[in-house]
Amino acid sequence: MDQVKPIPTIDHAALQQCVRALQGKNSVEAERLARQVLARNARDPDALFFLGVALLTQRRPAEAVAPLEAAANIRPNAELESNLAIALRDSGKAKEALARFERATKQFPPFAPAFLEYGATLRSMRRYAEAETVLLRAHQLAPDAPQINLILGAVLLARANPRGARESFERVLARFPDHLEAFFGLGVACLNEGQFARAAEQFRTVVARDPNHSRARLHLAHALMELSQQDEALACLRAAVAIDPSCRGNAIRMMVSAGRGRFWLKRSALVDVLGIKQKI
Q1: Which CATH fold would you assign to the domain 110-193?
Q2: What is the distance between the alpha carbons of residues 79 and 81, in angstroms, rounded to a whole number?
Q3: What is the assigned CATH class of domain 202-280?
Q4: Distance CA 64, CA 87 (A)
Q5: How many CB atoms lie within 10 A of CB 68?
Q6: Which residues of the chain are in CATH 1.25.40.10 domains?
Q7: CA distances (Å), 19 to each of 13, 22, 29, 75, 95, in order?
Q8: What is the pLDDT of residues 146-165, one digit of tens each?
């Protein structure tokens, strides 16, 4: 006798549509479908979760907290706790967010995105030592994930570990050879290690692909000054200030402090050389 297949319920079908809407980046439709299910069953954990994710996607984190919290109270898991932590963080509740991230990272099986978001949050709070510990765990879980390696590299730079940072950025480029953010991070790491020629190479790559990247031009100028290529360094600084006038202070400090830069006695001379029109 043939086995009778269960007939999908209305709510099950709606939730499947909700998943497809989220996968298709149609968060408004996902919200509508989730609310339809919740109108029939206010404690459906899947509908609560999907509603929270849809609201997060629409950048409505404060509204996302309630449905995600309700879902977590019914059926907690790492993905749900992580999204709730993001909602709390993005709605200004950092302390509560950290507690939820901690819970998310204690769940089994481990959920790499929870460690990534936890580490990124700690980095944004300048708690670099804790961020490094969390991100190293994320790296163990997903060693090739580019975002994990990018943020880990940035944290290692802040922790005065340029070698570790360089290795993180190199891992990204090994898989994604056109990743500009990784080129920039690698350049900064090489600069901090005193590998000025290699640093200049990375920054040149960034500038060639994004001519308006003022930070890459500033760092390229620094590397060139250390390589005694003064004329090109000054051209980079002028271009950086022309692109982003707010970086003129950094340009002046770089010219004064560069190990092999010129010694400037007057700020007015710096203004003339950089082509800055307004008074500093």
Answers
A1: 1.25.40
A2: 6
A3: mainly alpha
A4: 6
A5: 27
A6: 10-106, 110-193
A7: 10, 5, 10, 18, 31
A8: 999 999 999 999 999 999 99
